[in-house]
Structures are given as structure tokens and as C-alpha cells.
Amino acid sequence: MSNSVACLTPTVQGAIDWYKESGASALKPESRSKVLTENQERAIRHIICDKRPEQLKMEFALWGRAGVMQLIERELGLGLSLSVRGVGNYLARWGCRRTYLADYQR
Question: Which residue has the higher pLDDT, 92 or 34?
């Protein structure tokens, strides 16, 4: 079975064991909760669209995941800390792509 799903045998065996112990619900992916509220998302998107990082005295020339992560930490405070991947997920949800961010700033 591990060959047909491109997984290592221990991975497949672990899934089978979970299924036997807890049923199908054990195999469902965990839901990921959003860290930012709708208002916080809107505020960050507004800043990204209206300002360049240099206008905010940031050390980045264009918005990227690292710059947006720093912006979120700086603007929203509250000890919010997102991973680079988490910021990438927000940017993807907002329809921002690497080329879009670079083109938008020109």
C-alpha cells in the first residue's frame, strides 16, 4: 500500500493504527485557525497596497513575506508572530503573488 500512495511504510502503518484506535476522525487534518482578525487583515492589506516599505522606514525595497511579517509584528503588536509560511498563506489568500507585489510597487 505504501508504494501506491508514495509514503514510507511506517507512515502508512501509523495511519492504519490511528484509524484502528480512533476511527476515521483521527485521519482528518487539523483545522488551522487564522491568527489575524478580518479587521487586522484589512489594515495590513491597506498598508501593503498604499505604501512601500521604504515609506514606512523599513529596510525592504519591495513587499515580500519577510517584510509583511515584520509589518504585522510592528503594526499590530500584541505579541503576534507569524511564520514566513503563515505570512505566505495570507498573501496567497489575498491574491498577492511575488510578481504581483514587485509589479505593484513600480
Answer: 92
Return the C-alpha cell found at 82: 507569524
b/e sequence 18-39, b meaning 16+ C-beta within 10 Å: eeeeeeeeeeeeeeeeebbeee
Tell me: the pLDDT tens digits for 30-42? 555 568 889 999 9
Q: Rounded to an integer, what distance in angstroms lies between the CA atom of residue 62 and that of residue 39?
A: 23
How much is the pTM?
0.59
> Is residue 81 domain-shared with residue 60, that is, in the same domain?
yes
Asked if 9 and 57 sit in the same domain, the reply is no
Closest by alpha carbon to 72, among 48, 94, 51?
48
